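Researcher: Here's the sequence for the chain we discussed earlier.
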Amino acid sequence: MPNQNLHTDRVARLSSLLPNCGHENAAAMITSPVNIRYFTGFATDTGYLLLTPRAAYFLTDKRYDEAARGAITSAEVVGFSSLADSLLEILGGEAIQHLLIETDVVTLAQFERLKELLSPVTIVGDAALCKEIKRMRESKSAAEIEAIRHAQEITELSFSHILGEIREGVSERELSLELEFFMRRNGAEKVAFDLIVASGENGSMPHAVPSERRIKSGDFITFDIGAVYGGYHSDMTRTVAFGSITSEQRAVYETVREAQARAMEYLFAGGRTASLCDKAAREYIEQHGYGKNFTHSTGHGVGLEIHENPTVSYLSKGEIVSGSVITVEPGIYIEGQFGVRTENMLYVSDSEVFSFTSIGSELIIL
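Model: Thanks. This is the structure I predict for it:
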């Protein structure tokens, strides 16, 4: 897990930008639980991280301040009875005139309430603050990589386990529940998202919800699964066959498999343009007549959130930032019949690319 020196460095980096933010005597307030964890290492949904040019403060109500004091070293912990009173005391003591807030997180009602409570401080909805935090979070540290690696190990162990649970008549929902129980029993903080188990015709929906549909011979079964370890997510998809499958099913599977291989090879060969990575997979699928059946982007960033920057899409602009963790997950979905997706999670830097995913993509037939 990221260490406290890393958290302190992150706080210092963001705080150093305040004098040049275009607003005189400015501070920033972070309210997103994910971003608070990024800067402090503390998992909470009740707290506020206040950064001024001189100091950093974590404000939480008194029910949580003992836990916060034991966990946070990158900011001074302030237990409050009144958030507004504590904020005004700190902001007034440092002559802060402008308070930057996260435009991606704060609702309009919260914005108006802050304006009312913190007058005469000017509340500034600053998109630049969110952009900078996202930019920082894109490039992963060694400690973050290790946490993601551990999460992926739990995911792969769970996938290997669930293969032994697949039998005629078992439901998607039963398989999904067994996966979640197994992940938690084997060290997962929680599942990374609502796990997807989609069989037969349900596989044609990329984000199908596990149902009471029961497995039968001839099914493709798509497992899109992931675990969380130390706050960091993993993400892997594999489609397996149960019983005898058709020549069309096999052909679609091999098309998806080769499309993924081409997108990953683009990265291994040194390519870093997100849209071209997407193109490497998408063009191959289009050449085989299934372009309209590939309905989502080729990949996305993974970290403290299951979907974060960058997006690997034909609409993406710019390069993949060095240190990014991304997925490569093309798919083909034939409405009312079946679907195939295969997904690996990769680390991409200026000097290297490696896959967190050790399970091969060869078709498994049970």
